[in-house]
Predict the structure.
Amino acid sequence: MKQLFVFIRKEFFHVFRDRRTLLIMFGLPVVQIILFGFALSSEVKNIRLGISNAEDVSSRQIVNKIKSSSYFLVSEENISEGVIESEFLKGNLTAVLVFPPQFSNDLLHAGAATVQIITDGSDPNIAKTVVNYLTNIITAYQQESFGVATGYRIVPEIRMLYNEEGNGSLNFIPGVMALILMIVCTALTSVSIVKEKELGTMEVLLVSPFRPIWVLIAKAIPYLMLSLANFTVILLTAVYVLNVEVKGSVPLLFFETMLFIITCLSLGLLISNATNSQQTALLLSLMAMMLPTIIFTGFMMPLENMPVPFQVISNIIPSRWYFLIIKSVMLKGLGFEYVWKETLVLAAMTIGLLTIALKKFKTTL
Amino acid sequence: METVVLDHISKTYEKGTVLAVDEVSFSVNKGELFGLIGPDGAGKTSLFRILTTLLSADSGRASVAGFDVVKDYKTIRRIVGYMPGRFSLYQDLTVKENLEFFAALFGTTVEANYSLIKSIYEQIKPFNDRRAGKLSGGMKQKLALCCALIHKPQVLLLDEPTTGVDVVSRREFWDMLKSLKKEGITILVSTPYMDEASLCERIALIQSGKILSVNTPDGIRRAYPVKLYAAKSDNIYQLLMDLRALEWIEHCYASGEYLHFNFVSDEQNLLAGLEEYAVSRGHRHLVVREIIPDIEDCFIRLMNEGKWLSEEQIHAII
């Protein structure tokens, strides 16, 4: 046992004396989570909107409503129709709302009025979102001002469960967690073992009474602990920087994460068995882990939209199951009774990978 | 008593296409300082890895301290001290941490066997808190030796411990080996430097995976079958060319500032004829004398009985 303890302490020395490892371990996750949380948001915000011809009561009221929403920045209050196109071309505006002359009058007396929404269709996704936002605001205004008096109407009442504000970072957080743990655990573990091979220290380790399997265990334990610390950092960043609320039980989160970390460690051990240089190990863990994780986990692209063969493949990606678990526990607040199936799949994968890794570990050169 | 035994050991790489060790047999007696002498690529490291149970031989048997390298590999791993050819300690750990780590790995402490490493360790003790990667080549070797000795091994296997180390440190290192021998530890050491051969009790000359000869250094020198001469003149390169052109000179090669050569037959008149010939070829300040062959001469002769070596091959050995 003392041997194991000394070995683990040595591993910690390695990590804490290598600035690069530390940076990858703790810097990368925070940067990634903040990047994904803020920069890669799918929401459309800060839309630069021009208003044309809002000169009567009703149009002013609509403009005020628009201004009070956080999505729009009204940059031109009174844009003349002649310059609309040149403003679009210059990229100064994303959308323009054009009121006809006599807008109030038409509305009040004829009972119907038109407004024109012009958007920059070169990015159709943004354009559609802008149209939706504006239509919603105008419809809301119409209802407030004229009530139900206009006849039969269906008013859809929309609720986005578990994420009422439509906070885009919510979906990313579990995905990024899976991605980071996958990369950090797998890459660092495999590199740390291959490093011993590359520097020749493995030769000395093998010619000692220390059992080779213990080398793997001694390697895995420090990275398990570091990864759990890492997970805590990610979780704190998510909660306090990105305002993500953890709805479920935190101990359950840690339990599931620990399971997933062990999966990643086993993968790392497996990679280290197959390679002899640190570069190969790093490339293999990054390429082989990152792409499938991004594509098949479902946090970037919805799995439901993929062709069936891809959906089948996604089942063998461990991070997919972890993503499902974390989403359920963290965002929906579900308990273990709802995620035990996914946990079982993950556990089976872990045991499988770990067995192969231990079996494949060579006790000779 | 034989502590290390190799019996017709063969080892190939790349699915049998590269022969690294070819039917090697020799044995090392208990308490002996035994040298494995040969150029790079001769198969020395493969033999060490077979003895340390890191590689398995294709055929043949080997044992260390009576334990079979295949069957009893766990026991062997406990009782040998191994120093690989490359510096194999943790560069980012300090001298002290490295030593303590290896002590713990073998289930012992630095204090328990301190007497064994004391004389070596005291030389690097002032650098206790320096990282191993920042040590000089000679100090690295001393530290590596300490780490290999920390569990008081019965057999010490040192793979090219003096390669890349300066002359002074090399000499110190050999002195340390001699004092370790007094402790009763059997030492098998390999080196590509022929001049270190005479520091061993017995040596095995190895080339291209084959053992050329096993004997004491003196025994190998005495076994040199012909008289060997050294010659030099003002134009040493021209002299080499001229001597090689002569039919009655068997071997001629450069060694240090002299050329070493021997005649096809040991007759005195050939020597006189040679001097005449050299003068006729315009050589000045010619010096020719008979010499006692050193290990290098023996090696070259053994390696290539009757066949000329290319200049590169000789340089590779020297």
Remarks:
- The first helix of chain B runs from residue 44 to 51.
